[in-house]
Amino acid sequence: MSDNKIKAQGDCQCGAIKVSIDGPVARMAQCHCRDCQRSSGTGHMSLIFLAENSVTISGEATGYASTTDSGNTNTRYFCPTCGSRVFATNTLRPGVVAIPVGIFEDRSWFKPDVVVYSKNRDEWDISDASTPSFDMMPPA
Ligand SMILES: [Zn+2]
Ligand SMILES: [Zn+2]
Asked: Please, what are the domains in the chain?
């Protein structure tokens, strides 16, 4: 768990959806689950998790809900115009929002404190060996 605060702003590719965050970070993670791979179209998603009251979202995002291997519902929201992933919620973590770091203008602050679903990590998708890594999702 990180106890640092992050303030950052970002938007989707077409600019219709804007996301700003200002508050303490619950977690920064690199997720290699198959859903993140399919949804992002690449090897993993880099995500920051914050309490929903630290997150401001403007614009209308469309959600796609799927059931995770732990039986929870992960809803991934994207811009219906440009398709950019903008945030996600998971019934495993009520009140917490996960945001893909790539939407932020400044991403220099990102440093994953955990790598999850590393069982799906591809050889070509290199991650920092010093970051704690879990085959699946560690306990919340
Ligand atoms: Zn858009
Ligand atoms: Zn994932």
From this structure: 5-119 (3.90.1590.10)
If you ran DSSP here, which 8-state letter would residue 131 be given?
S
The Å distance, Cα 77 to ligand 1 centre, comes to 11
Cα 136 from Cα 64, distance rounded (Å): 22
Q: Report how far ligand 2's centroid is from the alpha carbon of 7 (Å).
A: 23
Instruction: For residue 102, report the distance from its CA to the centre of ligand 1, in Å.
Output: 13
Q: Could you say which ligand is closest to the alpha carbon of residue 17? A: 1
Token pair for 27: 């977690």
Interval between CA 49 and ligand 2 midpoint (Å): 13
pTM over 0.70? The answer is yes
- pLDDT one digit per residue (tens) for the chain, 140 residues: 445 899 999 999 999 999 999 999 999 999 999 999 999 999 999 999 999 999 999 999 999 999 998 899 999 999 999 999 999 999 999 999 999 999 999 999 999 999 999 999 999 999 899 999 999 888 76
Neighbours of 87 (CB within 10 A): 24
